[in-house]
Amino acid sequence: MSHTAGRTILASTIAKQYTEEVTQKVKELDFKPKLVGFLANDDPAAQMYANWTEKTCESLGFTYQLVKVAKNDLENAIVEANGNDGVNGIMVYFPVFGDQQDQYLQQAISPEKDVEGLNFLYYHNLYHNVRFLDAPINEQKSILPCTPLAMVKILEYLGIYNKHLPYGNRLYGKSILVVNRSEIVGRPLAALLANDGATVYSADIDNVQKFTRGDDLLMQRHKVEELNYEEFKPEVIAPQCDVVITGVPSEKYKFPTASVANGTVVINFASAKNFNEDIKERAGLYVPSIGKVTIAMLLRNLLRLIENKKIRQSK
Amino acid sequence: MSHTAGRTILASTIAKQYTEEVTQKVKELDFKPKLVGFLANDDPAAQMYANWTEKTCESLGFTYQLVKVAKNDLENAIVEANGNDGVNGIMVYFPVFGDQQDQYLQQAISPEKDVEGLNFLYYHNLYHNVRFLDAPINEQKSILPCTPLAMVKILEYLGIYNKHLPYGNRLYGKSILVVNRSEIVGRPLAALLANDGATVYSADIDNVQKFTRGDDLLMQRHKVEELNYEEFKPEVIAPQCDVVITGVPSEKYKFPTASVANGTVVINFASAKNFNEDIKERAGLYVPSIGKVTIAMLLRNLLRLIENKKIRQSK
């Protein structure tokens, strides 16, 4: 018998329904979708992640091709893959240059093959709570970046999204702390959850912002307010939050367990362990990592890109 | 009488023909074009630059409106200006957040109003040596980022571009050192000059790359080769270069004058002085700053955006 009141939920458990859904949908296609991953760094972690993407792809019925390429040849390789009808999805293992050139490369992937949802178009739609690519017809759904999307699916699974509320407002009344405000995950995640109705405290290294659609969700999309750091820093705001989400990419960083109220839902999306083991004595539901859900979302995005293309071609 | 063999050329001298051209073209329009500048930081230097933009705009026949806005309201303000028919051009005084969110905001400006040429579309065209927006009709010229474009115009003025060579190859045979490889100026500048036929040595803090279209300019666009830093660092490569261009944003940095061969063309685009006064004893032509040409290019881009819009509307 467990000694704690709460439970640890593994990403594999949450991912299961999505990997099943994806596997089923692939079977219904008349071809095997192909994902190309570009590796242009020597990072063994990226190589491991690539191996793991390959394994997942192949096991679910996709074709995966890892292309190793020199940093300075990457853009050309992306442009070629953009124009190659045999390639359905493209991803790059970042960082490549580790500077702003990586943002340039991110935009070089055609939105039509951007399985990670990194294109400005998709981030813009996320921030502006625009859910379709073809308003007002609204047939082609916009793509969401994989990690924020995985977080939504995890919160749905855990029952934080309340199905009794109208679609689009299902986080109404929930307070969520997100520790990380990177442009890739933390900021879009805060916006996405706020757009779904939550009050989100988005913490960066030395400041905290509040993302909401206003007290009554009257706004169509979120607004951002700067908060006083001392009054709203993570350990001060955490006790009032229903959900605490961390994504600090450092093995040294540990979220202060003592500030987490008993029964809080706790999720870590960093590859580093942002919580000590004693978090299990506090957390209601604890999800220590989310990678397997993220990769399911990647393949789900790939299928959505294929679907969107089909809709465009049928016009 | 001057004690040096070379000459210092001021940006105002080079800008003159372009400010005249711009003033003439504005007169031919049946409306007064409007540029909106968004200021969302407290940097006095940005405020000064804004004042200076305003002065130049008004004196050449444009309307300029400075809009001060809170950082977190900037994106909405940009989106509104994108949709406002009374606004012809939009610029933002960066940095705003000083992190990757600035790259997001940069993309938020509609390409149709992006006077600074910061949109991915324009950078992509620059890197790929694509000069029109509407191939194969080729009526709408692509926009070039202001500072790299200003540099091209300066090099044309100084006679480094050779008019006897075919258009597109007019830097053939020229070796150019560019010290700065920022994503905003240094890297696109190196690519642009290489695409026009030069051999460009692009120096970053601890590495040097060579940008060329191959020995015989057989390539349609440049390639990038990594060089051994010790063999090709700025002070080693400078003596062989026809042109030395610097853009190091630090008052402490000084390019080593002794490494510049007599008669070299020397241009500094940083707001900091990258050369000591003794450079005048070495340089053939020395351009100590380029701001006035850059701002002329900004207004030239604004007129080009208006022209492109007219062409689209006439279809």
UniProtKB/TrEMBL annotation, chains A, B:
The keyword Amino-acid biosynthesis belongs to this UniProt entry's keyword annotation: no
Domain Tetrahydrofolate dehydrogenase/cyclohydrolase catalytic stretches: 11-116
Gene Ontology MF annotations: methylenetetrahydrofolate dehydrogenase (NAD+) activity; methylenetetrahydrofolate dehydrogenase (NADP+) activity
EC class of the enzyme, as a word: oxidoreductase
GO cellular component, one term: nucleus
Primary residence: cytoplasm
Keywords: Cytoplasm, NAD, Nucleus, One-carbon metabolism, Oxidoreductase, Purine biosynthesis
Keyword field contains Nucleus: yes
Tetrahydrofolate dehydrogenase/cyclohydrolase NAD(P)-binding domain sequence ranges: 145-309
GO biological process: one-carbon metabolic process; purine nucleobase biosynthetic process; purine nucleotide biosynthetic process
Highest taxon above the source species: Eukaryota
InterPro entries per the UniProt record, alphabetical: Aminoacid_DH-like_N_sf, m-THF_DH_NAD-bd, NAD(P)-bd_dom_sf, THF_DH/CycHdrlase, THF_DH/CycHdrlase_cat_dom, THF_DH/CycHdrlase_NAD-bd_dom
UniProt EC number: 1.5.1.15
Listed transmembrane segments: none
Location of this chain's protein in the cell: Cytoplasm; Nucleus
Function of the molecule: Catalyzes oxidation of cytoplasmic one-carbon units for purine biosynthesis.
Family: Belongs to the tetrahydrofolate dehydrogenase/cyclohydrolase family.
Assembly and oligomerization: Homodimer.
Listed name of the protein: Methylenetetrahydrofolate dehydrogenase [NAD(+)]
Organism for this UniProt entry: Metschnikowia pulcherrima
